[in-house]
Amino acid sequence: DSVFGNIVRAPEDPILGVTVAYNKDPSPTKLNLGVGAYRTEEGKPLVLNVVRRAEQLIVNDRSRVKEYLPIIGLTDFNKLSAKLIFGTDSPAIQENRVTTVQCLSGTGSLRVGAEFLARHYHQRLIYIPQPTWGNHPKIFTVAGLSVKTYRYYDPKTRGLNFQGLLEDLSSAPSGAIVLLHACAHNPTGVDPTIEQWKQIRQLMRSKGLLPFFDSAYQGFASGSLDADAQPVRMFVADGGECLAAQSYAKNMGLYGERVGALSIVCKTEDVASRVESQLKLVIRPMYSSPPIHGASIVATILKDKDMYNEWTVELKAMADRIISMRQQLFDALRARGTPGDWSHIIKQIGMFTFTGLNTEQVAFMTKEYHIYMTSDGRISMAGLSSRTVPLLADAIHAAAT
Ligand code: PLP
Question: What positions does the domain Aminotransferase class I/classII large occupy (predicted)?
Fold first, then answer.
């Protein structure tokens, strides 16, 4: 008899479970729009040319060794990551009041930040948008924070519920942490305008709410790294404190390398260095130190002007392809006369479209058309191509009529 005999089977992860179901489907026309990973026009995963180039340099450099990194990771990587999100001329960086630690992609950065806050911050309450990425409530709960939601998406307009957002943040207790998607909100594709961000910033600062930015799509929303970082930079520019979790999974296509960074912007250099000393105590018993390869790729690219430029061109091409898929899908639905207003497909931003299709319609499309997506009706635009848009449009048309 197994000592684990009484263990109950856990449910499949709702997002990764879509891929499990997809893999089991023998249909030759099956389409996976569940997972948020970029695909080429041919439906293949993409390794950026600049990443291949950086890897070659790393492999050919005999002086590179496989020693352990420090607890907080690669120094160059951390410095360059902070500059990428906060801007090259950020006063907070120049004043040495930012601490940045290399973590295991966006998820690990969120987790280390959450763990630090649960141990050292006076308010253990975090507000996350409704809806949000499914892993957010789990990451913060398991770290020991209590999770509440603020209104974000309005199903009626398929846009931002700005009034609801302001009301909910207004009634949050002073000091509460607020999780903000830096850009390309997942799963809705709905972002506040810059004007709305200004109001959110004002409200949060007046109430002493602590911003925790999740930046998983910098450059993927607009195609511009600087434009997508604008909301974060706005909060840093006022001199206030905040946290930011960065991921290089999407914008450098380094998904499985697990490269990311957590930055904490503090009031003074002295506070930042004490915060960093405590971050080390969080990280050491979790995984000792982060992996070296992915961070070396990122640092190699960010350090070199020519490679950096090459990256921005490749990044823009990915963003542009996604934007063009939005237009093609919208046009295809219009051509079919599919009932309903589908303009949100071209208005939404980033990797995902929140179609507004309900659970039954999603189940119908999977059963009849072998199209896989999460049951909330979210589709990954990056998984579409000119060839598959008509299939999806046919399926949506059938589900909506
Ligand atoms: N945050 C959001 C909103 C995401 O959508 C994702 C990935 O899907 C992540 C964070 C973290 O991803 P990773 O841990 O692969 O960097």
Answer: 29-396
